[in-house]
Specification:
The chain has 370 residues and is α/β, with parallel strands linked by helices. It is 38% helix and 16% strand. The protein has 2 domains: 235 residues, 3-Layer(aba) Sandwich (Aspartate Aminotransferase, domain 2), CATH 3.40.640; 127 residues, Alpha-Beta Complex (Aspartate Aminotransferase, domain 1), CATH 3.90.1150.10. The chain contains 12 helices and 15 strands.
């Protein structure tokens, strides 16, 4: 089986984890956690970084830190991971879905403007699949309209927009260190901000509202979102290898581009670059031009030992009872790519021979459905 992804784990990563084990620094208060946070602040150019248990918990504390009121609206793309929607709903706000660009698969300013109302209080901007949202434009729009900007940079470690690192645009930005991310600790995440107020609040929110001045006295029923020392030691080591990892991913993406480019009547390829950013190929995605064959293709590829993944299923189509959201009728791009998109294997386990086999197999199978 050719897995859809395998992480890049280097000798230095193993050494850092073993070092924490030998020192018995495995808890959420280990020195490795503070070291990770310091390195994240430097890398993403943020005043404060707080490591948490995963990217979903990072979104949870970020949205709850805004202290939104009932009826407040948060704009987010329909084409994104379910944890974005869950975090908005758990914050008590109303999710309002915007569409994405059908070529970059990311939200643009015009998508946000289309659903903006007097009740809008925040925008959850997500960078997806290796390219970026229109970060500078959306940030300026939020500033002009006194809106909070939450930036989900889980899939954009090391990515830039207008030369500025993703993860530095939001009032609060969030990261995931899941196994398939450029910075990985298996599970884990972080919250980034320049606000002392947000930093102080989130520090309590991730740790049961502990107050070291009066321990075991609590004013709020906050949860435990701590990361472990072992996870932190792996993640902080991975930061040192991020440029190497991105280089590998770009090389794999370029090879796939060359293998697929003469068959574009079958599918739409990922964009290599936009005016403001270049593709990091966090995943290599294809959008099939023949409607309705995606799931059949994935099943057939699996039978030949090639694992794939479907694109995100649009949030507005999720089978969630009594979804407290305003459904925007203009979500056609999210539906198109959600129905017909898939991504194929990338990662440390591939070489040119395996990538060529994957591409040739996929091309032949897609042709068989036409």
């Amino acid at each position: 089986m050719i897995n859809v992804f395998e992480p890049y784990i280097f000798a230095r990563d193993k050494f850092e984890v073993l070092k924490s084990l030998n020192k018995k620094e495995i808890s959420g208060t280990s020195r490795a956690v503070k070291d990770l946070e310091d390195q994240l602040s430097i890398f993403f150019n943020r005043k404060y970084s707080l490591a948490v248990s995963n990217g979903s918990s990072a979104l949870d504390v970020a949205l709850n830190a805004l202290k939104l009121k009932e009826g407040d609206e948060v704009i987010l793309p329909s084409f994104t991971i379910i944890s974005c929607l869950s975090a908005v709903i758990r914050s008590g706000a109303v999710p309002v879905f915007c569409d994405v660009d059908k070529n970059t698969w990311n939200m643009k300013l015009e998508n946000v403007e289309e659903v903006f109302t007097k009740k809008t209080r925040a925008v959850l901007m997500v960078h997806t699949y290796g390219l970026t949202a229109e970060a500078s434009e959306i940030k300026q729009f939020c500033k002009d309209n006194s809106l909070f900007l939450i930036e989900d940079a889980a899939e954009a470690h090391g990515q830039t927009y207008d030369g500025i690192k993703c993860g530095s645009f939001g009032d609060i930005s969030t990261l995931s260190f899941y196994a398939n991310k450029h910075i990985s600790s298996g599970e884990g995440g972080a919250v980034l901000t320049d606000s002392n107020e947000f930093n102080s609040l989130i520090k309590k929110m991730r740790n049961l509202d502990f107050d070291n001045n009066k321990r075991f006295f609590h004013n709020n029923l906050y949860w435990n979102y701590r990361i472990s020392g072992l996870q932190a030691s792996l993640a902080k080591s991975q930061i040192k290898s991020i440029e190497k990892i991105i280089k590998y991913k770009k090389e794999q993406g370029t090879l796939y581009d060359n293998l697929f480019k003469n068959h574009q009547e079958l599918y739409s390829l990922p964009i290599e670059r936009t005016e403001n950013s270049s593709n990091h190929y966090w995943v290599y995605g294809l959008v099939l031009k023949k409607d309705g064959i995606r799931d059949l293709l994935m099943k057939s590829l699996m039978e030949d030992g090639i694992e794939t993944r479907p694109f995100f299923w649009p949030l507005h189509l999720q089978n969630i009872n009594q979804l407290p959201s305003k459904i925007n009728p203009n979500l056609k791009n999210s539906e198109l790519i959600g129905h017909n998109g898939l991504y194929i294997p990338t990662g440390a386990h591939l070489n040119k021979k395996i990538q060529t086999f994957i591409a040739e197999t996929l091309i032949n199978k897609v042709r068989s459905y036409i």
